[in-house]
Design goal:
The protein has 117 residues and is an alpha/beta fold. Helix content is 40%, strand content 14%. It is globular.
């Protein structure tokens, strides 16, 4: 895989299909499907063809799918659906995190030497 990728998590308020247009117009060749699975519709097999069609229309390849956190009770069933989607969509990688995480902006800013007041 060669190219530059961006994740669909950049703004879930923009519809998935519109995001693919924006990703294409920005010059990206690949994208990653973010963790808001309702946004992409990736957990429903009926959406696979539409995801393929729009990806191909905008000449984009899907390089990764953001996997479901491994510490959640339903991780096996959700990640099984993601594996099926990855196989159907020819996505080579699912990125998993061992647990859910949140970025503490105050802590991050303090590490950089910035402080919010």
């Amino acid at each position: 895989m060669n190219g530059i990728s961006v994740s669909t998590c950049f703004n879930y308020e923009i519809g998935f299909k519109k995001q693919l247009e924006l990703i294409h117009n920005a010059g990206f060749s690949h994208f990653s499907i973010g963790s808001n699975y309702n946004h992409s519709g990736i957990l429903k097999k009926k959406n696979y063809d539409e995801i393929k069609i729009f990806s191909e229309y905008y000449n984009l390849s899907i390089d990764t799918i953001h996997g479901y956190a491994l510490d959640k009770a339903d991780t096996v069933s959700v990640n099984k659906m993601l594996a099926e989607a990855a196989s159907a969509l020819n996505v080579p990688v699912i990125v998993h995190h061992c647990s859910s995480f949140a970025i503490n902006l105050c802590s991050l800013d303090a590490q950089r030497g910035f402080y919010r007041f």
